[in-house]
Write a structure and sequence with these properties.
This protein has 376 residues and is α/β, with parallel strands linked by helices. The chain has helices at 36-48, 60-67, 78-98, 111-115, 117-132, 155-165, 202-205, 220-232, 245-251, 270-277, 289-296, 339-345, 353-357; strands at residues 7-8, 14-19, 52-57, 104-109, 136-141, 170-175, 180-181, 193-194, 196-197, 236-241, 255-256, 258-261, 284-287, 307-311, 319-323, 329-334, 371-373. The protein has an 8-stranded mixed β-sheet, with helices on both faces. Strands 14-13-15-16-17 form a 5-stranded mixed β-sheet. A two-stranded antiparallel ribbon has the order 1-11. Helix 1 packs parallel to helix 9 (245-251), helix 2 (60-67) crosses helix 3 and helix 6 runs parallel beside helix 8. The longest helix has 21 residues, at 78-98. Substrate binds at residues 58, 143, 155.
């Protein structure tokens, strides 16, 4: 395989750096500073230049498992994984604090924190304040209270959501592989690195293999998904080998040896981005063909007359999917009414809402300002 050349890194003032378990887990169990030291030096160098960084770090489960090395835990058991995550959070944070001259703050996020608009904005304000007082936020999913059906699942996608949350200019993903390849370089000696990706197409996604680590939950596919989310928010993503000291050091000089994923040409409005990419709700509002067509045309609110039925339960202010008669999602939005009320007003005219419910929060089930269309 040909050596990957350096390329300019986009200018940035605020970035999110994601570090996976494969860079932190020691061969004999527990955590090791072997690769974290160089990454921490890059963070410190960037902070000295007046830049801001949010760290999304894995490693808690690996650290917890090492502390209970004598016990054979059934890793498929959710409660055991949650216990390991709770146990390992302290040593994971301690590792980063030992490598940082600045104070380190732990921020644990859940699916509901990112799905609920109010909590999403609270998390945003907290992270921004931590950056303002020159603290290094270390973000992770709150595995201890998550349940399988509501888990974010991997820190690659969490990092992309956090990048949009804090209005980052750049998403940095430290991996154990040099770049995106057109084939698995561990199995194919002719695999070629791809230094620049203008758009993540189905063909690019097809290049992704599975996870190459026994301790992590992500693989190349989740990294591409994260880059895709970041691109939709106008954020570039740099994928690089966090085990290569020269590669990490070059980042501080504005040079990347890895794959650069370019953002979309136009930055999506932050609120619309959140509506599309916050973790999905299990609930949905089914609409008729006419309403689906009106929504697809843009600029329309979802009115009760176009509602056919409701799938699942939700409350006023929740984020729900809007699906057409075939079950295809056409939009996502914040509902003005709970599921019980929407069922009662389905198919009715907006002027009938007060008479049916005894009150009204307005004529729309989902107002157009709280609605984002799904790309077709």
């Amino acid at each position: 395989m040909a050596e990957l050349a350096f390329q300019p890194l986009p200018a940035w003032r605020r970035a999110v750096l994601k570090v996976g378990s494969n860079l932190l887990a020691a061969d004999g169990g527990g955590l090791t500073p072997t690769y974290a030291q160089t990454l921490a030096a890059f963070i410190a160098h960037s902070q000295a230049q007046g830049r801001e960084l949010v760290l999304v770090s894995s490693g808690a489960v690996a650290a917890g498992r090492a502390l209970l090395r004598a016990r054979a835990l059934p890793v498929a058991d959710l409660a055991e994984r949650q216990a390991l995550a709770a146990l390992g959070q302290a040593p994971m944070i301690a590792l980063w604090q030992s490598l940082s001259s600045r104070a380190v703050a732990q921020v644990l996020l859940t699916h509901d924190d990112l799905r609920n608009r109010r909590r999403y904005l609270n998390a945003r304000a907290t992270l921004r304040q931590l950056l303002a007082i020159e603290v290094l936020p270390v973000v992770n999913e709150n595995d201890t209270v998550a349940v399988d059906e509501l888990k974010l699942g991997d820190n690659d996608n969490l990092a992309a959501i956090v990048a949009a949350l804090v209005d980052a200019d750049l998403l940095l993903i430290a991996s154990d592989i040099d770049a995106l390849y057109n084939a698995d370089p561990r199995r194919d000696s002719t695999a070629a690195a791809i230094p620049h990706v203008a758009e993540i197409t189905p063909q690019v996604l097809a290049m992704a293999g599975g996870s190459g680590s026994a301790v992590g939950t992500g693989g190349m596919r989740t990294k591409l998904q994260a880059a895709q989310k970041a691109a939709a928010a106008g954020i570039a993503t740099a994928l690089f080998n966090g085990r290569d000291a020269a590669t990490v050091q070059a980042l501080g000089e504005g040079r990347l040896r890895g794959t650069l994923f370019m953002p979309a040409q136009s930055r999506m409005q932050a609120r619309k981005y959140w509506l599309l990419h916050a973790p999905a709700s299990a609930a949905a509002i089914r609409v008729d063909a006419g309403a689906a067509s009106a929504l697809a045309g843009g600029g329309a609110s979802l009115l009760p007359g176009g509602v056919v039925d409701v799938v699942g339960e939700f409350h006023r202010g929740d984020l729900v999917d809007v699906i057409d008669p075939s079950g295809r999602m056409v939009a996502r939005g914040l509902t003005q009414y709970g599921a019980v009320d929407v069922r009662r007003m389905a198919g009715r005219h907006s002027r009938d809402i007060d008479g049916v419910l005894g009150y009204s929060y307005g004529p729309a089930v989902v107002h157009r300002d709280d609605l984002a269309l799904t790309a077709v």
